Task: structure prediction
Amino acid sequence: MRNLVWALLLLFIGAVLTGCGGRAGIPPEAGLDQPLPAYEPKETKLTPEQRDIEQLLSKNGYSNGSKPTVVVVHKLARKLTIYQGVTPLKTYKIVLGRDPYNDKTRQGDTCTPEGVYRVVCKYPHQKWTYFILLDYPNTQNWLKFGRAKKAGRLPDDADIGGAIGIHGTEDDGKNLAGVNWTRGCVSLTNRDLEEIYPLVNDKTLVVIKKD
Result:
């Protein structure tokens, strides 16, 4: 019996030495002096919208290292997404002009314009908490306005309008209910506007899309 116990004990010790601290069974190439495999960073795949923003930043003179704020408005989806460079930060619900479907061509049509805009200035507003003024009408808007007049789609006395921007609301309830009440601007709830306001400056690009 005693011999059996000693035999089992010796087998156990041998297994421990082989499996944990012993050299048996360890291939010679597993030494600590072997070089580690080269690190290969994983490529982050950009969405189509991020690729569009990347091209837009490059076209407007921003280098790869620059990360200006970019605001993307989707009219039909009723949403606004704020980006830092090509990195999305947050998406917000919005409401638009009373005609939320068509592109703005003149003053009084209550349409929200489409295109790429820059921020002219921003300031506290007595009715809508803050106002972020865009450079509407820009060159592209003037070209569309001229073509529409030439084609007879606008009366001769039509004015292209202005004072288009992003602002808050007098009644959060309207915005939460999805009522399009502005004359062409983009409106957020006051709480949401307060979040994006500090991120917007004169380097910010605002993209307003139909979809």
Observations:
- The two ends are 86 Å apart (CA to CA).
- The longest helix spans residues 2-21.
- The CA atoms of residues 51 and 66 lie 15 Å apart.
